[in-house]
Write a structure and sequence with these properties.
alpha+beta, 6 strands, four-stranded antiparallel β-sheet, two-stranded antiparallel sheet
Length: 111
């Protein structure tokens, strides 16, 4: 895997993220043909840092679909995680479940 892969604490563990070219093409298709570079600019416009940590500062024009699909496809491309000391593979089903918040109460629905 090339050096564009990153490892980040996410959800319930530490995961690898990587967008291979086929995933970039899928991302652009799922986001209405919007360029990955335009998505990068839109997502970055609302971010700042506190120390070394990225934080959402407000603003920006990124759509939720763009953010969720970037996370999902990055997880699939990275294909690995460390959860409670156990290495796991991250396929499409695991990635889809990780980008959803846990249920917050009885009868709640995930979309």
């Amino acid at each position: 895997m090339p050096d564009t892969r990153v490892e980040l604490d996410f959800a319930d563990g530490r995961y690898s993220f990587w967008l291979a070219l086929p995933h970039v093409v899928e991302l652009e298709r799922k986001c209405g043909g919007k360029s990955v570079f335009a998505m990068y600019d839109a997502m970055g416009a609302g971010l700042g840092t506190v120390g070394d940590d990225p934080v959402y500062m407000g603003g920006g024009t990124a759509m939720v679909t763009e953010i969720r699909e970037t996370i999902r496809l990055g997880l699939i491309g990275g294909n690995s995680g460390l959860v409670d000391g156990t290495e796991i593979e991250v396929g499409p089903n695991t990635a889809r479940n990780l980008d959803r918040p846990p249920p917050s109460g009885p009868g709640c629905l995930l979309v």
